[in-house]
Amino acid sequence: MKNIFLSLIVALLTTITFAQTSPEYRAERDKIHDLVHTKLKVDFNFQEQTMNGEEWVTIKSHFYPQEKVILDAKGMLMHKVTLNNQTLSYNYDNNELIIDLPRKYNRNEEFTLYIKYTAQPEKVKQKGSKAITSAKGLYFINPTGLDENKPTQIWTQGETEASSCWFPTIDAPNQKTSQEIYITVPQKFVTLSNGKLEKETNNANGTRTDYWNFTQKHAPYLFFMGIGEYEIVKDTYNNKPVDYYVEKEYAPYAKQIFGKTPEMLQFFSKITGIEYPWNKYAQIVGRDYVSGAMENTTAVIHGENAYQTPGQLIDENIQENTIAHEAFHHWFGDLVTAESWSNLTVNESFANYSEYLWREYKYGKEDADAHLFEDVQGYKNGQNYDKHLVRFNYDDKEDMFDGVSYNKGGAILHMLRNYLDDEAFYAGLNNYLTKNKYGTGEAHQLRLALEEVSGKDLNWFFNQWYFGSGHPKLDISYDFNELRKTVTVNIFQTQAEEFQFPFAIDVFEGTKATRHNVFVKGKDASFTFPYITQPKLIQVNADGVLLCDINENKVLSDYIFQIKHAKYYTHKREALLEVAIKQDNKDAFEAIAEAMNDPFYKIRMLALENINLINKNSKKREIETIKKIANNDPKTLVQATAIETLGKLTDPELKTIFEKALESPSYSVMGKALVALYYIDKPMAIAKSKELPNEVKKIIATPLTRIYLEEKDEGELTFIAGNVMSGMYLSADKKIQSLYKKAYEKISKSNNTEAISNLTDDIVSKGKQYKQYGFDQVGINLLRQMVEMQKKANTVNEIKNIEVIKKAMAKLLE
To answer: Which interval of the chain is the signal sequence (predicted)?
Structure first.
């Protein structure tokens, strides 16, 4: 499972207070019975949003003889339960189906129950989570076709325990079953499920029945059905089908979006030493999907955020990390599954770290390190410090899907890989996967597998990182002995817990760095190193591996040297931001200017964003450099940043650069150019913006919003309104947040009922989607403020507008 908003949304948690409760102990679910095989026949009532189901579920007692079977089944109507054509009595409480067997069945004595039922997902009461915002299992999208702007689709979402909303099962991750599904749908639809499409049968009533067969074992939460009018774009990996199910308009771009999947499967097969273990790999995009994506075995679903056009893909494929994440789950999560949600780390931490591994392989270490830095910030910005990675005490299983199980867990695996070395780390993963394939795993099994291969004791590592909380907070100081020519690095841990860890320290003599690898034990540690010439810089955590906070005293000259000579992205970034504050100093300004030509594009962007061009006449050389970057940088995102920087100069002589940029295939470049042009030729910029197709306007909504607000263009408020909540709360950029706050206030005071309606719809939608974060209360507060602003504005449509706002409040309070 991947939630693309997880790192952003966790920051909101710091502004919301939750009631504190004492979490319960959550063990692995007892195995009373074992699932063996599940066979389903289903068809759908689109009007009622229900599913007619028949199930043949083969079960056996796990160890002790049993005369009852308890199956999870949520919100269903039960019609019949039989065994060998004998009707069985049962009790059903809308959550569990308790079936009386005709006799006791002993260990390993298999039997098959037949259950006829109706699934009613709209009557399911269980809640979702931060990562998975709804939990009704089966989703009908625009089922009656009334919304002309949205296709009719059906898709399922099983994690954590929502598959039991559409078929009775033992809905626990420590169960494994093979499956067959017969799916009957109108002939205009295609279907997708786990495994192989064995047969398609056209029926006399205009429907078609597709038979999907999955012969291997996997957990019930990984069952999947996807239905809709899709084009199937075909690809292959190692003679296995790799298919992309997309809506027709995105079919030409499907391989640009998903086309690296075969290479990912090849790469992950190589590093794990286990060839991709399933018979196909398909990916489908679902409208209104409740998370970022989900690793259903051989049938991954992505949210519509995956849909991108060439104008976006030329900048970056924002779904690529997610595609890698879900692919790696087919080893960690699908092949070997967390035995309990407490051990979610053996699923999600690996999937998170796979993003780093893929980026390192495909784009280089600096790119991967930048991605890891952003992930770690997502962990640090949330209320995560006191949470253990493996947690047996929590209020709800959904609480496990957070910045610890994902972000911190990935960073911990990076430290573990560094400690063991690549060869031992990957051999250990192979050992873990091989021993537990088609079964379940937990952190202790991972530790034992790595210990067996490496010969190292890892109890200390797992105790502090997997079964402990927090991370080191280090005060660093240096003592130079010029007589002996030594430097002593003092490391003091300020957090309550005491950590031990390997630590890399670089001593720079001139531009040459000598790496010293030490092992820190105890709260207070010191290490002394010799030197020949006075060191220019001491760089601690020099490889960037340790998850920690560091406090040290450095002067401007240290940071300038660090920008130029540090090897790790985070150190360059840290130094650049510190130097940018002091650009009145000539050396500092020149260091920022030089960083605009850094080999890594994110450093170039950071330098462009922070360079100070006040007194532009004295900085003509740098401006010329930025103009060249705007025209020629190999990364369009850097070009866009250069154009934004030039735009701040409001210099008419730059008009030709901005006009040329409007012809760029990159929407990012185009959007920045429109804003830059607006401040030197408003009529042209506005005319150009009005000519844009609606689909392009939606993609570059933020720069257009800036122009329309500055222009006081009341006619565009309706367009702006649909993007306000995402801009205010889901953007990590404070400038964008500020922009959309202005938009919110402008619309709230306006006479434009259509814009107010669009804004209230956006608030209700996001309030429900992120309810687990208290976002519904944020929405209520925003709506109340809108009422007050309408009253103060005393608009012509005040009464009508307030009525619209109050109706939205009622929806959010439902």
So the answer is: 1-19
Alpha carbon of 400 to those of 178, 345, 349, 397, 403: distances in Å? 27, 9, 12, 6, 9
160 prior amide bond cis, ω within 30: yes
> Over the stretch 243-297, which tens digit does the pLDDT of each residue have?
999 999 999 999 999 999 999 999 999 999 999 999 999 999 999 998 899 999 9
Q: Where are the alpha helices (DSSP H) in 679-716?
A: 682-691, 694-699, 701-711
CA 697/CA 431 separation, integer angstroms: 51
CATH code at position 519: 2.60.40.1840
SS3 13: helix
Beta bridge partners of 281: 242
Question: What one-letter code names the amino acid at 28?
Answer: E
What lies within 8 Å, CB to CB, of 472 at 6+ separation is: 493, 495, 499, 501, 546, 547, 548, 549
The fraction of the chain above a pLDDT of 90, given in percent, is: 83
* End residue of a domain, out of 507, 528, 553: 553
Pairing of strands 473-481, 549-552: parallel
Q: Which two tokens stand for residue 807?
A: 């109706």
Please state the domain count of the chain.
2
Look at residue 533 and tell me whether its pLDDT is greater than 50: yes
DSSP state of 421: -
Residue 292: how many CB atoms within 10 A of its CB? 23
Does some domain include residue 501?
Answer: yes
In a domain, 59, yes or no: yes
Q: Are 108 and 751 in contact (CB under 8 A)?
A: no
Tokens for 116, please give them. Answer: 């006829």
Rounded to the nearest 10 degrees, the angle between the axes of helix 443-454 and helix 345-363 is 50
Residue 219 domain boundaries: 33-250+281-302
DSSP class per residue in 100-136: EEEEEE-BT--EEEEEEEEE-GGG------SSS----
CB-CB contact of 812 with 763 (8 Å): yes
**Across 7-160, where does the E strand assignment appear?**
24-25, 33-45, 50-61, 66-72, 76-83, 86-87, 90-92, 96-105, 111-119, 138-141, 153-156
CA torsion angle 339 342 345 347 (round to 10): 40
Q: What is residue 155's three-state secondary structure? A: strand
Residue 800: CB atoms within 10 Å: 14
CATH number at residue 182: 2.60.40.1730
Q: Is 312 left (phi over 0), alpha (psi -120 to 50) or beta?
A: alpha
The overall longest dimension of the chain from CA atoms, in Å, is 96
Question: CA 39 to CA 61: how far, in whole Å?
Answer: 19
Q: Is 275 contained in some domain? A: no
Strands 207-218 and 393-394: unpaired
pLDDT score at 773: 58
Instruction: Give dist(CA 759, CA 717) in Å, integer.
Output: 9
Answer yes or no: is 52 within a domain.
Answer: yes
Give start and end residues of each alpha helix (H) in 512-585. Answer: 556-565, 569-580
Task: Give φ, ψ of 317 to 5 degrees.
Answer: -90, 100
Structure token pair of residue 146:
């009334």
Averaged pLDDT for residues 447-451:
98
Q: Supply the DSSP string of 460-511, one letter for each residue.
A: HHHHHHTSS----EEEEEEEEETTTTEEEEEEEE-SSS---EEEEEEEEETT
What pLDDT sits at residue 4?
54
3-class secondary-structure state, position 18 = coil
In this structure, which amino acid lies at residue 801?
Answer: N
More confident residue, 384 or 4: 384
